[in-house]
Design brief:
0% strand, 52% helix, 14 helices, 297 residues, mainly alpha
Amino acid sequence: MKLHLDTLHPRAVFLLKCLYTSGRLLRFLSQILVSEEHRSKFVAQWNLLIDQLQFEEVFKGVKLKEKLAIPTPISPAAPGPISPATPGPVSPATPGPISPATPGPISPATPGPISPAIPLIKHSTEHFDELIADVDSFWKEYGYGYVSLLKLLLYEFQNKVPLIAIQNGKDAHGLFKLLVAPGILNKSDVTVLIEAVYLSCLVGLESKIMDLVPSFKGFENFEVRKFSKRRQNLVNFGFIISIDTMKWIEQLYNVKSEDQWDLIFKIEILRKLPFLVEKLKQKNMMEEYEIITSSDN
């Protein structure tokens, strides 16, 4: 399998991340090498190892190339001689009587419509239940451990969805259904679901979503609107966190976790994230620090 990746493309790191976290090849391999009763454990361990060792190294290489990229300088135009203007005689103006202006009625300005800078598209569907079912099925097959990631994402709506309900969620279907009652997710607006799929790198669902949601045109140039930049940073932090870093954080805050996103979710609930950010800076873990504190649009 070959992949051409332009390191200067704005979606390069995202595409690379999706490649390493799709898990398809690993699952096929597990069916050949591992007995059924041990297959889930095999996939879980290797998924985490791939994220932490292989992706982390390639991610660093991409970021390094981006920093070393130097734009082509623009050569200034060569200045030429400036010819002075030839002065001519100045004729004095002949003064005449000044007529006062006749005042007239003042017409009020006609107001026009104010166009929003960036229109917000609401993606709707007549196949709401089918969409959630298909997303849940894909999540179970290719998103092992990503239920914790979804919980971390949905904590964005902590003022509308009870925390205990998010914590007790068992699958994507149940977690997405929590958003129906407060009106965050319904057939008239499934944008949150699409953005969650995008941020989780489960972009293999693109064609299925396009079939069921006519207004959705794919993930190319897709913009996230429902989830804050801070929430996106936490998810991205989970993608590059290492095994050693996980163990260090667990010991630091005496927390046990199932995976990296479960760990971040628990640290956030404990209100320890600001302290973790400072610890990352103190230990000179600048890659992790910059991702979790990124403020880029």
